[in-house]
Amino acid sequence: MTPELLRGSRAHLAPVAVALLVIGLAAGCGSAETSPPDSGSSASVASAPTSSSTPSVVEEGEAVVEEGEAVVEEGEAVVEEGEERARLETRARPETRAPSAGTLQGIDVSHHQGAIDWDRVAGDGIDFAYLKATEGGGFTDDRFVSNASSAHRAGLRVGGYHYYTLCSPPEPQAAHFVDVLAQARTDLPPVVDLELIGNCDPPPDRATLRADVETFVDRVEDATGTEVVVYFHPDFEVHYAMVDDLDRRLWVRRVGSTPPPGDWFIWQRDDAGSVDGVSTPVDRDVMRP
User: Fold this and answer.
1) Mean pLDDT computed over every residue of the chain
2) pLDDT at 39
3) pTM check: above 0.85
4) I need a labelling partner for 100 at 20 to 30 A (CA). Which of 8, 148, 174, 198 fits?
């Protein structure tokens, strides 16, 4: 749609021609008037030029009108250019559709969000929460257990996720994640978070990491009896291209645009959302039931 500023251009420019026409006519009337004649025969001499000057005044007025019409035409060209630009920008922008009916609204948080009022979160239309449980082979999020308990009391479905460390052996990471998950009530499948950010340098080669991640996933699934969901950060997938290798339900990150239809289980739709009860920006997610 045309922006309001451009949409109003014709309305603002059209009166210009009228105003200029009035000015031209006024100029013509003013030019036709003469000063009172002096005494004697000079009156006939003074009035003589009046009739001869009238055509030039009319021509001047017509020129002013033509100038006004040119301004209007220029304004219409600006409007048309603005309309075309708006069409192109709309075509270029990725379309973000509202989550479809039947999907669940959620957030994912860690200790970085601080204290959370989960009753207010639930009151803001949030159905589920994924909570950071562990990272690597030894880090435990100190708010995982309390967040899980409070979120459950508020009526949310809860899951835990593990931030995978690329250069740590998979077995101790899986064991650590399973141990911490057991300390809280969770009713959503476990998630492994695969990212390049904050990981080792240089990272392992693709074949090595693929085998390690498969080992981690197998260990967690054996211990929990639940299929692991895999979160792939786009940078990670560009570097390693593992989506098809793991053959698990996916948590996709697509901020600002809707992911294409496909086999995704969770969609991260915002990485700086606002939710009542959370004092910091928070990831917003959509889950298929």
Assistant:
1) 77
2) 38
3) no
4) 148
Cβ 229 vs Cβ 244: under 8 Å: no
185 has a pLDDT exceeding 70: yes
Q: What tokens appear for 167 in the block?
A: 């250069």
Average pLDDT over residues 147-161: 98
CB contact burial 152-186 (16+ within 10 A = b; e otherwise): bebebbbbbbbbbbbebebeebbebbbebbeebeb
User: Residue 63 and residue 285: Cα distance in Å, rounded?
Assistant: 64
User: What secondary structure, in 3-state letters, does the chain show?
Assistant: CCCHHHHCHHHHHHHHHHHHHHHHHHHHHHHHCCCCCCCCCHHHHHHHHHHHHHHHHHHHHHHHHHHHHHHHHHHHHHHHHHHHHHHHHHHHCCCCCCCCCCCEEEEEECHHHCCCCHHHHHHCCCCEEEEEEEECCCEECCCHHHHHHHHHHCCCEEEEEEECCCCCCHHHHHHHHHHHHCCCCCCCCCEEEECCCCCCCCCCCHHHHHHHHHHHHHHHHHHHCCCCEEEECHHHHHHHCCHHHHCCCEEEECCCCCCCCCCEEEEEEEEEECCCCCCCCEEEEEECC
Q: Which amino acid is at 111?
A: H
- Range with the poorest average pLDDT among 101-115, 127-141, 150-164: 101-115
